[in-house]
Design a protein that fits this description.
Chain A: Belongs to the cation transport ATPase (P-type) (TC 3.A.3) family. Type IV subfamily. The complex is a heterodimer of chains A (1183) and B (343). By secondary structure, chain A is of the alpha+beta class. Chain A is 48% helix and 15% strand. Chain B has helices at residues 2-7, 32-58, 72-79, 118-122, 126-129, 157-160, 191-197, 206-209, 239-245, 308-342, and strands at residues 25-27, 62-66, 89-96, 100-101, 105-111, 166-172, 178-180, 183-184, 253-260, 269-270, 273-280, 291-297. Chain B is extended, with a radius of gyration of 31 Å. The chains are: A alpha+beta (1183), B alpha+beta (343).
């Protein structure tokens, strides 16, 4: 954190200014008063907020030397500050902050050591390198941070790519390299990259590689993940490079033993880093508000001081001048105007306690405490992965209680990224897994506790041990040798594009291009049809223990239009078979008429599958006669060679052979959601939190998941799809959607339109618009690119914000950030982004709060997040329980804190009118010093660390309680003004009641009690009693600690009083402790206690009355809910709500995955079906 | 679980009430009935308290004699500082319609004298007054040293402005004879002030102790001559001095000056009749439009004649009861609406 950032917090500048004022001798305070300000050096509050733990250089690969330097800078800066602190401050409270500081310093020391160690090793590495280069060519292992542009690096299987590299050669034929891009775009299928032929010849010949002297000219670093243009100049020839040659940082090498690449971009130039956006210093809305309020207070203070200075001027003119016999002016004071100028600054110092530094210290402590609660929460601990929730920043807690928009990634966040072969229908027989939630745990932890139920696959020694399936009938069928079942599984084991790996005999690892396919092949494997290996012409399958080799004659690959794939194989018996799998809508039109009845039964089954939200596929086969195939084969190869219209011709040829298919059955695969996702989303919806899914994945899968997890519902009136390819169509689509939701929102008379017509200045807020029903919106990345430009962004925002659910698919990471930015900019609402992969980093950084899913393979998202959870479902607890509490506590804290300081400080203003505006304080200087540090700090900390207005069960059961936070109802400018007025009133009472009491009054032995010191004591005792009573009113949750803090602080005050006013201390330092005997003489006066009681009554009753009348006169929805809760607490109800939350995916249906005809009445009744996607496939193949 | 802990340490957070935010607690919810009855009780309490306080304040006899106007000629004389050595006496007579029973206290009261000015309050040396170092005058600006450069004892603006009018109260026993009312001049200051906070420097002879110091410029005589008759009332531990040094909080204040010595005809208190004060007028106030007065008063348990607390309690009680009734009305009227919400 640099100085500039320090002063972004206005208060820091303010405190620096006050510090300077103190040093200048406007008002010679005695030393202890001085300490109370300067003992807290500037920026103490901010050192404690040190944002994130510095990621250790090793774990965050990119923490290159630049970052380390940055950390070093911070270290030096903080260390200087730290030592200054330690020397200076002597006050008890700071022991606490000291400890934190010491930890920090220690942490930095360790960091420094690592830096030295690191640089040493780098240096030695460098030296070593030089030596080696001179001797012979060899591969050197080095750190990520040392990779430089122009290096040639070798990558091995399953390694994460360190930089954007140009593929030179690889172990696979044709220099193919398989990569997984889940970190980049959320897609889980494998992609293929191929090196250009010149370089691929080098293979792993180090001599050739090291002699490679090509020159690459390419575009400058940019954030486009799917585009790259460049030229390689090598041996006098130019080769064109495109993004097929480039392997991006963040990918994972799969299925390839090794590959060599030339580094093109490193570090911040890489595409993924270009996409990840700038990381900014996040500050909460409350922080911003506090900045504004500090400014207000500053102005208020200034005007107050000005008025008092004017008062002093008048007083000096009228009276002070004539009073000079008794109190002559100082030598340098020539006129009352000059004296007034000095008084202005004196009052500035006296009244500055309106914003004490302890406010900031306390705020940090509260946030720290509330962060610890998050770390400590057992209910957010995920046992299978042994990860608790983690608050990685301690500065954003209260904002968790204000979230309005949640932007979620799909893969790995909503889903587990596990595909499960769930159900199937074979030749009209329905097989189902008795599949339970525990299953997922079983699969992850490899626990075998459920073996009793589990099907015995012992007959098949190639079975995947992790697989579990509980339907015995299917196994029986396989064992019996049912022809159809065998054919079904054979087709699954043949008709796919999976690649197998068998490093150790019997341990097969499948590299599937899509997890769906992997699930199918794995299922076939476990039922005894093990796909073992393939070559370009054969497929080896172990069928029930017997190895058979099929000749692969043709693969008719998947495409988005065809929505099916087929293979043609020659069996060992010399039969030619075609196996086809694909979308049911397509496939059922290609079936042979003879399987009509079977088709009907299967369709029924498919309906069932679809209604469970499963991804369905149909499987069919056809037996071909040899001549026909020869004929077709010829046509096919001709079509493949044709130059014009090749795609079309191929597909026509394919259609010729994919006819008259015999239906085998259907499969259903579940894209497994994380536990509790639908319930969580339902709860968050109830809390009026809008959830947008931003994913890089395909539209179909995204929409399927949206249905499965309640973002879209069947009851929705309509779902709009925006997929235009230019500004015009996108704009039109958006507008027509908006017209349907709210017809008059297009009219000029609409308030939002007329507001926009006034052309407000850029940072403006678009008000909330209410649609006529519930709608959903789907928008694709291409359309989004248009929609995010220029004037369309407002259209997009208005349309999207009216929808209940929004799905954005095929997005680049940067677009995710742009969408978040858009909402942030115009809605002024708190946004939260949650994701798990590198492609989510950008939005995590941009959003007000970034949440990373931890415990996954990639750490990128987690490392740049503010909170790390291990499951999506913990989000509801994080927001509704921790967030809500943090927000409520912070608001209560701020209201109370401002109140107590206004009440405390403004008494001086009233006294000014009776003390010749001479900057006389009402209190003893010791009281001023201790008020914020000792007497009132613990009760308010107790309030803001332990208070719970309702307990966690209620806040989860009534998510509506979350709403006030979203509108920031508990602490805003209005509330602040209320605090101010309340403070002014209290200070008025606290001054005039004691004044009336002591004025012209005497104690019963005749001695007068209207002396300054007794008056001070009475006022400060009343003040303390009043603010303590006020906090007892605010506290709703009285723990033992609250009692100790609140009453203890009050008791402690009296103890300290007797100590400070004792004979011994005063005789030791007569000039420092002047209040000798005041406590003894004044505390036994009946008037004093009558005065305290009266002050309490006068200060408390209006507050109690206001709190009593407020819900009666101005009822807010939350009041009613709280009323209801109180009612329920007194008369406990049976627990009906639970069942409502137990709503699972079974109720909704992914009709979209089925065909049109199958649903009969249900579909015709639902108007929603019309707009749904007629063509749908769940088959994410490579294209 | 067991197996897990063998594999690696479980990071499961502790299940303590503190960490899980499950601390046993009392939930404070004020119901409407509690609030309303609280208001009622408070109102009744305040009313009762107000009545008691007013009654006891009424039982006090008090008389205030403002002599600023009556001694105008003396005031005029004192405006010119060069006349400091000229004596000026004036006599003020008054009539006491009812007798003052019990202990009677004599106060002097100043109007418009700001003893609470910031610089004024600071201008004293507690180290000097406690007797440790008579020459310590650090905080005493602007009255630190005399013109000759000697440290002033007692230094500072407060000491310098010591109220130095003296009074003699005469009782007109009958038309011809006047009796001097006996007054006690001690035990007017706080015990802690007299015996802890103010100490003479330890010397056998008080005047020796103050050697090398100067008297405050406004004082006619040095500090060790304040009360030469009574050594326990001389120097820094002079009661009048101590009382003055305990600065008042407001510009209008009264300070205890003398107590009635209840002997002879004054055993019962001050009898009714006519009295006169002989005032030795020394303290100038007319320059800053100040006023001086003398107050004779009796006392009760709740102190003096100030009506403030009694009235304040009475008003508070009345307002609270009023609030109670209106809140009750609102509550009853809106109760139906409220129960409607509950459904």
């Amino acid at each position: 954190m640099n100085l500039f950032e320090q002063f972004q917090r206005l208060a820091n500048a303010y405190f620096l200014f006050l510090l300077l004022l103190q040093v200048l001798p406007f008002r010679a305070f005695s030393t202890e008063y001085f300490i109370s300000f300067s003992g807290e050096p500037l920026g103490l509050a901010s050192t404690m907020t040190q944002q994130r733990l510095a990621p250790s250089p090793a774990s965050a690969g990119e923490a290159g030397s630049q970052d380390l330097l940055y950390f070093l800078n911070i270290f030096l800066y903080d260390f200087r500050k730290g030592t200054k602190m330690i020397i200076k401050s002597t006050i008890v409270l700071f022991c606490f902050s000291h400890r934190i500081l010491l930890w920090e310093v220690l942490g930095y020391l360790i960091l420094l050591l690592t830096v030295f160690a690191d640089s040493y090793s780098v240096l030695s590495d460098l030296l070593l390198n030089e030596k080696l280069k001179a001797q012979k060519i060899m591969i050197v292992t080095d750190k990520w941070m040392n990779v430089q542009v122009g290096d040639i690096i070798k990558l091995e299987n399953n390694q994460i790519v360190t930089a954007d590299i140009l593929l030179l050669s690889s172990s696979e034929p044709y220099s193919l390299t398989y990569i997984e891009t889940a970190e980049l775009d959320g897609e889980t299928n494998l992609k293929v990259k191929q090196a250009i032929s010149v370089t691929s010849e080098m293979e792993d010949n180090l001599k050739l590689l090291s002699a490679f002297d090509g020159e690459v000219r390419c575009e400058s670093p940019n954030n486009k993940l799917d585009r790259f243009t460049g030229i390689l100049m090598y041996k006098g020839k130019n080769y064109i490079l495109n993004h097929d040659r480039l392997i991006l940082r963040g990918c994972v090498i799969r299925n390839t033993d090794w590959c060599y690449g030339l580094v093109i971009f490193t570090g911040p130039d890489t595409k993924v880093m270009q996409n990840s956006g700038k990381s900014t210093f996040k500050r909460t809305h409350i922080d911003h508000l506090m900045n504004v309020l500090v400014l207000w207070i500053f102005l208020f203070l200034g005007s107050m001081c000005f008025l008092l200075a004017v008062g002093h001027y008048i007083w000096e003119n009228n009276q002070g001048y004539y009073f000079q016999d008794y109190l002559p002016w100082k030598d340098y004071v020539s006129s009352s105007a000059f004296s007034a100028a000095l008084i202005f600054w004196s009052y500035f110092i006296i009244l500055n306690t309106m914003v004490p530094i302890s406010l900031y210290v306390s705020v940090e402590i509260i946030r720290l405490g509330n962060s610890f609660y998050i770390n400590w929460d057992q209910k957010m601990f995920y046992e299978p992965k042994n990860t608790p929730a983690q608050a990685r920043t301690t500065t954003l807690n209260e904002e968790l209680g204000q979230v309005k928009y949640v932007f979620s990634d799909k893969t790995g966040t909503l889903t587990q990224n596990i595909m499960i072969f769930n159900k199937c229908s074979i030749n009209g027989t329905f097989y189902e897994l008795y599949y339970e939630i525990v299953n997922s745990l079983v699969m992850i932890s490899g626990h075998k506790a459920h073996s009793s139920k589990k099907v015995d696959f012992s007959y098949n020694n190639l079975a995947d041990p992790k697989f579990s399936f509980y339907d015995k009938t299917l196994v029986e069928a396989v064992k019996k040798g049912d022809h159809w079942v065998h054919l079904f599984f054979l087709s699954l084991s043949l008709c796919h594009t999976v690649i197998s790996e068998e490093k150790v005999e019997g341990e097969l690892v499948y590299q599937a291009q899509s997890p769906d396919e992997g699930a199918l092949v794995t299922a076939a494997r476990n039922f005894g049809f093990v796909f073992r290996s393939r070559t370009s012409e054969t497929i080896m399958v172990v069928e029930m223990g017997k190895t058979r080799v099929y000749q692969l004659l043709a693969i008719l690959d998947f495409s988005n239009v065809r929505k099916r794939m087929s293979v043609v194989v020659r069996t060992p018996e010399n039969r030619i078979l075609l196996f086809c799998k694909g979308a049911d809508t397509i496939l059922c039109q290609l079936l042979h008429p003879s399987c009509r009845s079977l088709q009907d039964i299967t369709m029924d089954h498919l309906d069932d599958f679809a209604s469970d939200g499963l991804r369905t596929l149909m499987v069919a086969y056809r037996e071909l006669d040899s001549a026909f195939f020869q004929d077709w084969s010829k046509k096919h190869s001709e079509a493949c060679l044709s130059l014009e219209n090749r795609e079309n011709e191929i597909s026509t040829v394919c259609e010729e052979i994919e006819r008259d298919l015999m239906l085998l059955g259907a499969t259903a695969i579940e894209d497994k959601l994380q536990d509790g996702v639908p319930e969580t989303i339902l709860t968050l919806n109830k809390a009026k939190i809008k959830i947008w899914v931003l994913t890089g994945d395909k539209q179909e899968t995204a929409v399927n998941i949206a249905y499965a997890c309640n973002i879209f519902e069947d009851e929705m009136d309509e779902i709009f799809i925006v997929e235009g390819n230019n500004d015009e169509t996108v704009g039109r689509e958006l507008r027509s959607a908006r017209e349907k939701m709210k017809p008059d929102s297009l009219l000029e008379s609409d308030p939002v339109n007329s507001y926009l017509a006034t052309k407000p200045q850029p940072p403006f807020k678009i008000p909330e618009e209410v649609p006529s029903g519930s709608y959903g919106l789907i928008i694709t990345g291409y359309s989004l690119a248009h929609a995010l430009e220029g004037n369309l962004e407002l259209e997009l925002l208005r349309t999207a914000c009216m929808c209940k659910g929004v799905i954005c698919c095929r997005m680049t990471p940067l677009q995710k950030a742009q969408v978040v930015e858009l909402v942030k900019k115009y809605k002024r609402a708190v946004t939260l982004a949650i994701g798990d992969g590198a492609n989510d980093v950008s939005m995590i950084k941009v959003a007000h709060i970034g949440v990373g899913i931890s415990g996954q393979e990639g750490m990128q998202a987690m490392l740049s997040s503010d909170y790390a959870l291990s499951q999506f479902r913990y989000l509801q607890r994080l927001l509704l329980v921790h967030g809500r509490w943090s927000y409520n506590r912070m608001c209560k804290f701020l209201s109370y804190f401002f109140y107590k300081n206004f009440a405390f400080t403004l008494v001086h203003v009233w006294y000014a009118f009776y003390s010749g505006f001479s900057a006389q304080t009402v209190y003893d200087t010791w009281f001023i010093t201790f008020y914020n540090l000792v007497y009132t700090s613990l009760p308010v900390l107790g309030l803001s660390l332990f208070d719970q207005d309702v307990n966690e069960t209620w806040s989860l059961r009534f998510p509506e309680l979350y709403e006030p936070g979203q509108h920031n109802l508990y602490f805003n400018k209005k509330e602040f003004v209320k605090c101010l007025l309340h403070g002014i009133y209290s200070s008025f009472v606290l001054y005039f009641i004691p004044m009336g009491t002591v004025f012209n009054s005497e104690c019963k032995d005749g001695k007068e009690i209207s002396d300054y010191q007794s008056f001070s004591l009475i006022v400060q005792t009343s003040l303390l009693c009043v603010v303590t009573m006020q906090i007892t009113l605010e506290t709703t949750y009285w723990t033992m600690i609250s009692h100790v803090f609140t009453w203890g602080s009050l008791g402690f005050y009296f103890c300290i009083l007797f100590f400070l006013y004792s004979d011994g201390l005063c005789l030791l330092f007569p000039d420092v402790f002047q209040f000798l005997g005041v406590a003894r003489n004044t505390l036994n006066l009946p008037q004093m206690w009558l005065c305290v009681v009266l002050s309490i009554i006068l200060c408390m009753l209006p507050v109690v009355g206001y709190q009593f009348l407020k819900p009666l006169f101005w009822p807010v929805s939350v009041d009613q809910i709280i009323d209801r809760i109180h009612h329920c607490m007194r008369h406990p109800l049976p627990y009906p709500v639970r069942t409502k939350l137990k709503h699972t995916a079974s109720r909704r249906s992914a009709y979209a995955f089925s065909h049109k005809q199958g649903f009969g009445a249900l579909i015709t009744s639902g108007k929603t079906m019309k707009v749904r996607f007629p063509k749908r496939n769940s088959f994410p193949h490579k294209r | 679980m067991k197996r897990k802990s063998q594999d690696c340490k479980s990071r499961l957070p502790d299940n303590s009430a503190m960490k899980q935010q499950q601390l046993p607690a009392f939930r404070l919810q004020l119901s409407a009935n509690e609030i309303l009855s609280g208001f009622f009780a408070t109102g009744v309490f305040c009313l009762g308290m107000g009545v008691i306080l007013l009654l006891s304040a009424k039982s006090i006899r008090e008389i205030e004699i403002n002599y600023t106007e009556k001694c105008a000629s003396c005031a005029k004389l004192r405006e010119d500082a060069t006349n400091f050595d000229k004596e000026c006496n004036c006599s003020v007579s008054f009539y006491l319609p009812q007798k003052m029973e019990g202990n009677v206290y004599l106060y002097y009261k100043l109007y418009g004298f700001y003893q609470n000015l910031y610089r004024y309050i600071l201008s004293r040396s507690n180290i000097q007054l406690v007797g440790t170092d008579v020459k310590d005058v650090r905080n005493c600006a602007p009255f630190k040293t005399s013109d000759e450069g000697l440290p002033i004892a007692p230094c500072g603006a407060i000491a310098n402005s010591l109220f130095n009018d003296t009074f003699v109260l005469l009782y007109n026993f009958n038309s011809s004879t006047q009796i001097k009312v006996p007054m006690v001049r001690t035990a007017t200051a706080w015990w802690t002030d007299k015996y802890v906070k103010f100490q003479n420097p330890t010397y056998q002879n008080l005047s020796h102790a103050f050697e090398g110091t100067a008297k405050p410029p406004n004082w006619p005589k040095p500090v060790y001559e304040l009360d030469e008759e009574d050594p326990r009332n001389n120097g820094f531990i002079n009661d009048d001095f101590i009382v003055w040094m305990r600065t008042a909080a407001f510009p209008t204040f009264k300070k205890l000056h003398r107590r009635l010595h209840r002997i002879d005809s004054f055993t019962e208190g001050l009898p009714a009749g006519s009295y006169s004060f002989i005032i030795n007028y020394n303290f100038p106030v007319s320059k800053f439009q100040g006023q001086k007065a003398l107050v004779l008063s009796t006392l009760t348990w709740s102190g003096g004649s100030s009506l403030f607390l009694g009235l304040a309690y009475l008003v508070t009680g009345a307002v609270t009861l009023l609030a109670f009734f209106s809140m009750m009305a609102v509550h009853l009227k809106l109760k139906e609406r409220k129960t409607f919400f509950l459904q």
